[in-house]
């Protein structure tokens, strides 16, 4: 009889220990997703063909140095969006009928299939980027709200850099 009650106590202890381990793992995942990594759901087709509406983008929040061609998550005017950096501090950006020019050189972008033209309601060009400023564009240049409309973005408006993408198909 004593052995059976010891066995039941041991099972209860094991179950409690398992629940504590599960709780610690859930808290750890929550902290990682809140402070280190993030998930962004693409809400439009402004980054076609690289990202499509509904794709899940996983990003890293702790990176503070960004390079040209990095795909970043930006919070601009209370909306998050995903964009590509095309120019950084010290660069001069000009968009003409010929396309995107950075520091006077016409850019040849391999993954961009549409023309880069200025918007009528957008900012005036050329523009010189100051310290901690970036010029971002969507890959689908005909259908993207980006720096051509709202101007440069500041470093503190960048929420993270894309690390991986999960294609969402039919769910």
Structure explained in plain terms:
This protein has 171 residues and is of the alpha+beta class. The protein is 23% helix and 32% strand. The chain is built from two helices and eleven strands; from the N terminus they run αβββββββββαββ. The protein has helices spanning 2-36, 147-150; strands spanning 37-41, 56-60, 71-76, 79-87, 92-96, 99-102, 105-106, 127-128, 133-137, 153-154, 158-166. The strands form two sheets. A seven-stranded antiparallel β-sheet has the order 1-2-11-3-4-9-10. A four-stranded antiparallel β-sheet has the order 7-6-5-8, with no helix packed on it. The protein starts with a helix and ends in a 5-residue tail after the last strand. The model has no long low-confidence stretch (mean pLDDT 91).
Give me a quick take on this structure:
This protein is an alpha+beta fold. The chain has 2 helices and 11 strands; from the N terminus they run αβββββββββαββ. A hairpin with a 2-residue loop joins β3 and β4 (79-87).
SSE blueprint:
Elements: H1 2-36, E1 37-41, E2 56-60, E3 71-76, E4 79-87, E5 92-96, E6 99-102, E7 105-106, E8 127-128, E9 133-137, H2 147-150, E10 153-154, E11 158-166
Summed up, the helix count is 2
First-last Cα distance = 54 Å
Structural class label: alpha+beta
Quaternary structure annotation: single chain
């Amino acid at each position: 009889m004593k052995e059976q009650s010891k066995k039941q106590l041991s099972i209860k202890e094991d179950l409690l220990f398992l629940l504590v381990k599960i709780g610690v793992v859930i808290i750890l995942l929550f902290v990682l997703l809140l402070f280190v990594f993030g998930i962004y759901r693409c809400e439009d087709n402004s980054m076609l063909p690289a990202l499509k509406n509904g794709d899940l983008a996983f990003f890293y929040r702790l990176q503070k140095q960004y390079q040209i061609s990095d795909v970043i998550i930006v919070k601009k005017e209370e909306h998050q969006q995903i964009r590509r950096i095309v120019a950084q501090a010290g660069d001069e950006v000009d968009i003409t009928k010929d396309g995107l020019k950075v520091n006077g050189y016409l850019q040849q972008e391999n993954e961009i299939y549409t023309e880069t033209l200025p918007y009528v309601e957008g900012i005036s060009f050329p523009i010189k980027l100051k310290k901690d400023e970036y010029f971002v564009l969507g890959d689908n240049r005909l259908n993207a709200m980006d720096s051509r409309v709202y101007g440069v973005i500041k470093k503190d408006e960048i929420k993270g850099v894309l690390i991986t993408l999960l294609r969402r198909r039919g769910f």
